[in-house]
Description:
Among the domains are: 58-166 and 284-353 and 363-379, no CATH class; 171-280. It has 552 residues and is mainly β. The radius of gyration is 25 Å and the shape is globular. α2 links the parallel β3 (73-77) and β4 (107-111). It is built from six helices and 40 strands. The strands form seven sheets. It has a 17-stranded parallel β-sheet that branches. Strands 6-9-21-23-26-29-31 form a seven-stranded parallel β-sheet. The longest helix is centred in the first third of the chain and has 20 residues, at 2-21.
Amino acid sequence: MEKTKIFDAYMLSLVLLVLAASPLKAQPNYSSYVRPGPEGMLIYASDAQGNRIPDYSYAGYKGGVVSLPNAPVRIVLEPARGDDTERIQAAIDKVATMPFGKNGLRGAVLLKAGLYEVKGPLKIAASGVVLRGQGTGPDGTIIRATSKEKSEWSGDWKSCLITVSGKNDSREIPHTRQDIVNEKVTLEQTAFTIKDARAYQPGNLIIVRRNTNAAWVHAIGMDRIPPRKDRNPIRQWRPGARETYERAITAINGNQITIDCPVYDTIEQRYGGGWVYKYEFPGRIQNVGVENLRAVSVWEPENGTDPLTHSAAMLQFFNAKDCWACDLTGIHFYGTGILVGSKTRDVTIQDCTLENAEPKYYAAYPYVARYGITLAGQGILVQRCKAFNCRHAFSVGSRTAGPNVFLDCDGPSTLGASEPHHRWSTGVLFDHCGHNHPTPILIMNRGSMGSGHGWTTGNSLMWNCIGDPLTAESPPISRNYSIGCKGQRKAGPFEAFQPQTYESWGRHVVPASLYLAQLKDRLGPEAVRNIASREQLERNHISVKDQDNNLE
């Protein structure tokens, strides 16, 4: 009996030694809303109202299918004395007349390393043209934006250093508008029925427009926005068409059409339904890039403040698709570093740094814009970007259709937050942001802020972000989420009305990046290798092949 006890104690000690030497592997932390399934593909759960996390992976140049192209150099410019605006513009215009080559590219204007004085603006108005420098550092290509023009926001920034813009000539093709007849089209649906599909065929470009009625406005409380304390007027929301989703038809079965990408809000008859129509946009340009340079908006303090009489924006895109901005540094552009307009889609902005002047210089103008990267377009991927001293480092505008993604971005701020900004955008993802510099992110009801900003977004998400503070509020008939985030939670200013969704607070979830996991599911690991850095691949457990796939 005594020998048995000694033996049992000996075996127990062996087991404990083995466990100590080989600890049990920690189980991955998964979200209940979206998680890897048995075969590795993500599986999604819907709540009682049918809300679920959408697929954001359609964002980026050509929908995330390929890496950014490398345009051949056609014209090389060296630094020279005096203003370089006309010289650089002439080179851009000359390349714009050249024939298209591979990947729809005409070629690049290369600004060799050195200093360029540019009063501006520089304009790229043709497809296939790239403006490229030789580095963002002190020894690279530096453009001094010397304009003394004061510019205020009027849909664009008139005092902008570089503008990429086609013609604003999009139009609805007459006699093609058809109502959506489904009682409800949910977030994951790409097939729905219209009244009459005889005028449509696969390959057609269409607009899917979500409508709203008084019942929708009332359901989300935007017909009773509380008054401002300063008694400035408030605009209560009105019914009417809201998001405009650009899509292509991939299949037709009777009056049912299938589109290439889902929409990012539920379309319901009880709340106004929606419709589709064919459109054309002949003046839109594509395959335009701005790369690898540093731009500085030149100014001198007056009475200790910024007089705002200098270039307001570094780069803006309008009436364009399949474009990019990469490896750019923008300094002291007081309006917006990079702006993507409402009729622009499928743009990648990556590895860019925006830096505003210190907040003390804006003491006389506390609400001057000071945005970092601002999106009003759809299908935009902003990745590995940083924005400092901004009021809103990464933001999305009114009625903006998704998807729009901020991946691995940092936007510390002392005066504001990154956010969908006002009046209902859809399908915004903040993914793995704030890991180098904790980034305030607010997804909430802004109520009477501004002239009645109200609910800023629906079907948007913070995934594995770090920030101080973070806010995730959900409208009554939609859902926003904070999953796997860390930092300080903060209720919005109108929190008495808002449910909040926080899951796994203080502990990150798997996968590290939702966007990259969704892209892998949709297009395979090669698509992720096309756009991701080595660090992103390793963090998301995707192998790095022995080939050049735009890896760092």
